[in-house]
């Protein structure tokens, strides 16, 4: 729905609309400090950008001011803890490092629940690699000399190379490799974009590649990829294992008191993998502007997001 056709809410009209559509709701939450911008964290991957821009666009149309702030995977928690950042909407809970549990325990941030994103994470490979690594997807195929040789690079010789997440995302692969004595060495990717570029180059040249990756992502709509059946995780701490992660929403501890209606909205806010993957494809492969893609989704899915707004009446 275009901005010209979208019902623009003031704090008063928001309350009136919520009372009208929120059957049985007794009172709408207060808007709070609607003249102060809510600072939303922008992380390093497109899927998170989509999630954040959908929430931001709807908050703006409700009547809030929004500011998008770029922050790294771990540094964002420091900003949320001291109130210089307000919201981060796509925290993959198996990749939070040590800072998040600390500030959560101290009550400086609040976990406001799961995003609802259906996820997958692990080691992936182009399926043509079964020619040089017979036995895939079983992880033991990665120990065979021919497979190791195919994956070897100058910086990992004599081990095979595993393209890992960027350094500030953390690495669980290195510990799993060590625990299982695998002939592999992790090499951190520079960014999501750099990892995808290397994958696309490898696929075009039919070159062997093993990499840590996640879904939802548009690459799985374009390349025939396999998921390795992972080796055992022997860590006493499950956070160091590689499993399909939960994805949570986190806010600064003072958020609810400052922006009550926005807090209720964000608690109700959800994102599904199928929708996100299509939007990622439109942005990263088709070159469409993220605001255009997000506004189109909002236009076509009022029945999806209207209940999130209704939650602000509770």
From TrEMBL:
Coiled-coil boundaries: none
Species in which this protein is naturally found: Mesorhizobium escarrei
Domain ABC-type glycine betaine transport system substrate-binding: residue ranges: 37-300
The protein's name in its UniProt record: L-proline glycine betaine binding ABC transporter protein ProX (TC 3.A.1.12.1)
Keywords: Signal
Pfam families documented for this protein: OpuAC (PF04069)
Residue ranges of the TM segments: none
CDD domains, A to Z: PBP2_BCP_2 (cd13643)
Listed InterPro entries: ABC_Gly_betaine_transp_sub-bd
Signal sequence residues: 1-28
